[in-house]
Design a protein that fits this description.
The protein has about 425 residues and is an alpha+beta fold. It has 3 domains: about 110 residues, 2-Layer Sandwich (Alpha-Beta Plaits); about 100 residues, Chitinase A, domain 3; about 160 residues, Trigger factor, C-terminal domain (Trigger factor, domain 2, Orthogonal Bundle). It is built from 11 helices and 11 strands. The strands form 3 sheets. Strands 6, 7, 8, 9 and 10 form a 5-stranded antiparallel beta sheet that branches. Strand 3 and strand 4 form a beta hairpin. The mean pLDDT is about 90.
Length: about 425
């Protein structure tokens, strides 16, 4: 086989092919004969045109196809012989073809890098302390009881976080204009919800019923409306009412209506679910810190193909989120123009961390079994409150969903092994 192999970087190889003699006549003749049997030329019945005429019309095309097949075959055999784990499609360069005589070309191929990790035993991390407070439980109870809560007016009160303000407001721009999209009447706003731009809800705290106040604010520089980015605006407000949610007393009967056996059962399961949720959040934060450290400690090249694929996935996720927030195409273009660099960095990080976890998974001989899969389904059912059979149907009915969950299980087991190798305080 007439080729040589060169290293470009840790994940790119160059295959240099040179064939001083090349005879494609046999392949070309076979393909011309096939074409003769299928082609219809003017003045001849299908399949009856002279071979010379078929060659004159289709010869260059068939020769090009034969050359392409030859190149693809040579590349495939070289990749197989060198045992290269190729990512994406090859890039061909320096093509030099002398018809019927010789051909030379270079093929750049990206491969999965060989990731050699440093010893982790000296690494140390701090895990967040996980605890569930009575306030946490009370807030969760309120979320259960929200559908049964009543909104009641507070007389003589001053507006505080957690209160609901019924207000009229009108925004005035620096030029004195008062656009219709900056007005509201009898608008219900939960103070502290962050529904309005920063400073608005804070500016209302302390107001009393029927009080009027002008709140001067500056819109954020990344605000989605172009004409309001960084704009200084005066909001003229009038507080019409102050309300709060009045929640019913939690009883055994009410707990049963909510799907629990009793008030005690609701409180016990709520506390457990909150603890599980906080433990997951703590683990996610710890795992992120571990990955950031491992990526920083271990330098290696990553294939641009994988980075570009990951970048596309991130952009699609961001687009869906922005669309839900009301962004149009132009606004999305502006967003990606401003934050594209962050997305690039995130894509590189995710590719590197994925390769590191894959390497460690193989090193630790991590496998995800059907038993692990079923245990994960039970965990999801317990935390979500959705029946196990429904969860099982969702994941077993779609091979892709099952593969994704199995990957998550392997990742969890890999992190468990990593935490045995490092120090966790």
């Amino acid at each position: 086989m007439s080729y040589s192999l060169e290293n470009v970087n840790g994940c790119t190889k160059k295959l240099v092919f040179k064939f001083d003699s090349l005879d494609l006549s046999e392949q070309i003749k076979i393909e011309l004969t096939k074409k003769q049997r299928s082609v219809s030329l003017k003045g001849f019945r299908k399949g009856k045109a002279p071979l010379a005429m078929v060659e004159k019309m289709y010869g260059p095309q068939i020769e090009n196809e034969a050359l392409n097949n030859f190149i693809q075959t040579q590349l495939y055999e070289a990749v197989s012989k060198e045992d290269l784990r190729v990512v994406g499609y090859p890039k061909f360069e320096n093509m030099n073809y002398d018809s019927g005589k010789s051909v030379s070309f270079d093929a750049l191929v990206e491969i999965f890098p060989e990731v050699k990790l440093k010893d982790m035993s000296s690494l140390s991390f701090t895990a967040e302390k996980v605890e569930v407070t009575e306030e946490d439980v009370d807030n969760m109870k309120k979320s259960y009881l929200a559908s049964k809560a009543e909104m009641k007016e507070l007389e003589g009160a001053a507006l505080e976080n957690g209160h609901f303000a019924v207000l009229n407001f009108e925004g005035e721009k620096e030029d004195g204009s008062r656009p219709d999209n900056m007005k509201g009447e009898e608008f219900l706003l939960e103070i502290g919800s962050g529904q309005f731009i920063p400073g608005f809800e804070e500016g209302m705290i302390g107001m009393k019923k029927d009080e009027e106040k002008t709140i001067e604010l500056t819109f954020p520089e990344d605000y989605h409306a172009e004409d309001l980015k960084g704009a200084k605006v005066k909001f003229h407000t009038k507080l019409l009412e102050i309300k709060e949610k009045a929640f019913p007393e939690l009883t055994d009967d009410l707990a049963k209506e909510l799907g629990f056996e009793s008030k005690a059962d609701l409180e016990e399961k709520t506390k457990k679910n909150l603890m599980d949720q906080k433990e997951r959040q703590s683990n996610e934060k710890l795992h992120q810190e571990i990955l950031e450290t491992l990526v920083k400690e271990n330098e290696f090249d990553v294939p641009s193909t994988l980075v570009n694929q990951q970048k596309s996935h991130i952009q699609e996720d961001v687009k869906r989120t922005l669309a839900q927030q009301g962004f149009n195409e132009q606004m999305m273009e502006e967003y990606f123009s401003k934050w594209g660099g962050d997305i690039d960095e995130k894509a590189v990080f995710q590719v590197k961390s994925g390769l590191i976890l894959d390497t460690l998974g193989k090193q630790f001989e991590i496998e995800a079994s059907e038993e692990d899969f079923n245990a994960k389904l039970q965990e999801i059912a317990d935390s979500s409150g959705i029946p196990l059979e429904q969860i099982k149907g969702y994941y077993t009915g779609d091979p892709k969903m099952k593969n994704n969950l199995m990957y998550a299980v392997r990742e969890e087991k890999t992190f468990a092994k990593i935490k045995e190798q490092v120090t966790i305080k």
